[in-house]
Design a protein that fits this description.
It is a single chain. With about 400 residues, the chain is α/β, with parallel strands linked by helices. It has 15 helices and 15 strands. It is globular and about 70 Å long.
């Protein structure tokens, strides 16, 4: 048994423990406490010891676009800029895509992330994540507003996932799910077919209520997203606006299942948040990306007051400067100063792990959980009281003060 002692241990499942300790054996947590430990302890010093963070939403395939897509005043404008960058492509071919993904995963690991929900169109990220020993859910995302054969497209996507799993059954560290992208990019028939064929353990995911343009499109069938679909040649003249909000739209299509990840949710009404809560869906918020792409300001405090489960993601390097979850927590704190720091930390750990279906392994420092932890060096004021520690951790932790602690190889 290996025992670690720290100035503060943050189990997340309970209150911070001053001068706490964590006992690890067989790569998993065996005990957590304070006072005299069950064996001689290694003192980590003036640090906070907490569970590894969970990035519930990113797009590793877009990592090569870092710094190439400018901020925009509207979502439609930002998408046009992204499509232009994608048409030009990476400077040195496909190798650059893999290199950028590999660097992005390493950076996530270095800043304390241990579990990722990644959106993928090619499934390449699964092997990149596995090489860095990063557990994940890989969401194989389907687009197509005017598909010829929706059932065939979904069937082929599921077969591609099955073939990938069969080719490397012991190497991949991912669960997989075939999912739709967004109401303005994925046909209703595709959403419905995906929902019918979906089965666990990975949840469904969808970009939802990310922009005012999306809400307008669903209510009226008009606006910038219709113009964009026509411009890129994929508009379906037979499509009829559902004349409802995005949550109701998913419900009609059978896509609003327990555990479905509703990514962004910037323009959800309070009633829609309560509908999402009652459906046992999860809101995944990515506030830094929302600001960059012109989506608006997510109502963080209202997410929590509505009682909906809230997880946290960074989105991609095409729309944020880092995949550092501590940077995302700092954005949450700026937008929602009235929300307890403990709740924000819970969203970036326990809630994210549960949302991705890994709650038995990650999210808390609890007996039986995987011993992938993280330490954060503490300045003087944050050493004194537990509430200060939690507030410090959501206030903008310097990346150089974060150190991953992987104890999974301890016998």
């Amino acid at each position: 048994m290996t025992v670690l002692r720290a100035r503060w241990v943050l189990p997340v499942a309970g209150a911070p423990i001053a001068h706490g300790w964590v006992a690890v054996q067989g790569g998993r947590v065996r005990a957590v406490g304070h006072g005299r430990p069950p064996a001689p302890a290694r003192d980590l010093g003036d640090v906070a010891l907490l569970p590894g963070l969970v990035n519930a939403h990113t797009h590793l395939e877009l990592s090569w676009m870092a710094g190439l897509v400018p901020s925009a005043a509207s979502m439609g404008e930002w998408i046009r800029a992204l499509l232009q960058v994608r048409r030009v492509g990476p400077a040195r071919g496909n190798a650059t895509v893999i290199e950028a993904m590999t660097a992005a995963v390493s950076a996530m690991r270095a800043t304390g992330t241990v579990l990722v929900g990644d959106i993928s169109n090619t499934l390449v990220s699964a092997s990149v994540l596995a090489r860095d020993a990063m557990d994940s859910v890989v969401f194989h995302e389907l687009l197509g507003f005017n598909p010829i054969d929706p059932a065939g497209q979904v069937r082929a996507a599921n077969e591609l996932v099955a073939d990938l799993l069969a080719s490397a059954p012991n190497q991949l560290r991912a669960h997989f799910a075939v999912v739709g992208h967004a109401p303005y990019s994925t046909a209703p028939a595709l959403f419905a077919e995906i929902a019918v064929r979906h089965e666990g353990p990975a949840p469904l995911s969808v970009h939802l209520a990310e922009s005012a343009e999306e809400v307008e499109f669903l209510h009226t069938g008009r606006g910038p997203f219709r113009d964009l679909l026509m411009q890129v040649g994929v508009w379906n003249p037979l499509w009829e606006a559902p004349h409802c909000g995005p949550v109701e739209y998913l419900r009609r299509l059978g896509y609003l299942k327990p555990g479905t990840l509703l990514v962004h949710g910037v323009h959800l009404t309070m009633d829609e948040m309560e509908q999402a809560r009652d459906a046992e869906a999860v809101v995944v918020t990515c506030p830094r990306s929302n600001a960059r792409v012109g989506g608006g300001v997510p109502p963080i405090a209202r997410f929590f007051s509505a009682g909906v489960d809230v997880a946290v993601g960074t989105d991609s390097l095409a729309s944020v400067d880092s995949l550092n979850m501590f940077d995302e927590l700092a954005a949450l704190r700026r937008l929602a100063p009235e929300v307890d720091a403990a709740r924000l930390l819970d969203s970036a750990t326990r809630a994210g792990a549960n949302a991705l279906g890994f709650g038995q392994d990650y999210g808390t420092i609890s007996v039986g959980r995987v011993a992938r932890l993280v330490t954060v060096a503490l300045p003087g004021p944050a050493r004194a009281r537990g509430t200060d520690v939690e507030e410090y951790l959501v206030g903008g932790v310097p990346a150089e003060d974060v150190a991953p602690l992987d104890l999974t190889t301890i016998p």
